[in-house]
Amino acid sequence: MLHAENLSMRYFRKTGQANHFHAVKDVSLALRPGEVALLTGRSGSGKTTLLHMLAGLLTPTEGRVRLDDTDLYALPDAALSRLRNAKLGVIPQGRSAVDTLTVLENVLLPQQLRGEKGDAKGALRWLEALGIANLRDARPAELSGGELRRMAIARALAGNPEVVLADEPTGDLDDENTAAVLSLLRKAAVEEGKTVLLVTHDSEALPYGDRIYRMESGALSAQSEE
Ligand SMILES: Nc1ncnc2c1ncn2[C@@H]1O[C@H](COP(=O)(O)OP(=O)(O)O)[C@@H](O)[C@H]1O
Ligand SMILES: [Mg+2]
Known about the structure:
Elements: E1 2-12, E2 20-31, E3 36-40, H1 47-54, E4 62-67, E5 70-71, H2 77-87, E6 88-91, H3 103-113, H4 120-129, H5 145-158, E7 163-167, H6 175-190, E8 195-199, E9 211-216, E10 219-223
Parallel strand pairs: 3-8, 3-9, 6-7, 7-8
Antiparallel strand pairs: 1-2, 1-4, 4-5, 9-10
Residues 11, 23, 41, 43-49 line the site of adenosine-5'-diphosphate (ADP).
């Protein structure tokens, strides 16, 4: 189980009346194995900031993140990197491709960073499921936005993480690929027991979630379960 306990993130800003503001305010939530939690909210409401803190990528100004019994930010840097790489699969909102590697090599990268050879057959199965197996030897510069996004999804899932944190993964996909990605993430939770957090603006995603959270100006509220 991934727990956020009273997480806050204050950013310092040079302009404006206050010299800092809370992008995330006192957020607590528990993400459970086998479930998809949806996180919605307007642009700028703090969703990405919260996801980065849950992913071990951004040290909160207050609060803790616990994966089972491990307090992520109490770990030394090297141990946190190892844990992140072994257990947390992040599908970032922005670009994340390594441009010098092929698509398949990008997908295998998390496994190789763990010192493994990497399961090329497994990686290809993810590329197939996402409809981009034909691009396995292409370089990221040759891919469209939607293809790059699907490569990032394949990379997160091929690493076989316990937790999948997806930041608007269907943002640049057409309807057909949106449905394919949402059902892959749902399957990862239901059939493989993964813990999935899905940040989305897409109302199409609602049926794929077990619970829905909403961010407003950095504060989190739980919405009724569908
Ligand atoms: N590194 C940063 N420094 C200062 N402000 C930031 C930084 N990153 C994000 N913000 C601000 O924090 C707020 C929340 O951003 P973000 O978490 O990206 O929101 P969302 O993902 O919901 O669109 C925004 O007002 C954004 O401008
Ligand atoms: Mg965002």
